Amino acid sequence: MRSLDFTPLYRATVGFDRIADLMDRVLATEVAQPATYPPYNIEKTAENAYRISIAVAGFTAEELTVEVREGTLFVSARKAPDTVERTYLHRGIATRAFERRFALADHVKVTGAAHEHGMLHIDLVRETPEALKPRRIEIARAEAGTQAVLEGTAVQS
């Protein structure tokens, strides 16, 4: 297990604690869950749109759960007990339970999920709030009357 000490970062910065928390989570998650099951892709589909595709062969849509909590996307699956007794000569399709976590950046929202052909597709979009978007401020021109009033106010005070 890797361990990083972020104490110097906390002493010298303000407001970057989320980055340190994210690093702690990523390092802890890397150890906690196997990196190979289930296989997945993260795709950028547009300027502010993404898609996570997870191979979930053997699972039905009812056995899958997708939820967002505290800026983290949780995808999990629990296989219902098989009522039919089977004898496998080779079992290569893993249907074991799993939980996969993805840390979401600020303003990234899940817009939908679809289960098709053994794949779970989760669509995400980054929605920048109006307050954070750049905006142009119009510069007003001083008129002659306004300028005289401003000068008169300055003289009287």
What percent of residues are in strands?
Answer: 25-35%
What order do the helices and strands follow? HHEEEEEEEH
* Architecture per CATH nomenclature, i.e. the level-2 architecture of the largest domain: Sandwich
Q: How many helices?
A: 3
Q: How is the largest sheet built, in terms of strand order?
A: 1-2-7-6
Shape: elongated
Give the terminus-to-terminus CA distance. Answer: 69 Å
CATH topology annotation of the largest domain? Immunoglobulin-like
- The low-confidence parts are none
Count of folded domains: 2
What would CATH call the class of the largest domain?
A: Mainly Beta
Tally the beta strands: 7
- Quaternary form: single chain
Question: Could you explain the architecture of this structure?
Answer:
A four-stranded antiparallel β-sheet has the order 1-2-7-6, with no helix packed on it. β3 and β4 form a beta hairpin. The mean pLDDT is 82. It is of the alpha+beta class and 157 residues long. It has helices spanning 7-12, 17-32, 144-156; strands spanning 40-46, 49-55, 64-69, 72-77, 98-103, 108-116, 119-126. It folds into two domains: 1-32, no CATH class; 37-156, Immunoglobulin-like (Sandwich), CATH 2.60.40. It contains three helices and seven strands; from the N terminus they run ααβββββββα. The longest helix has 16 residues, at 17-32.
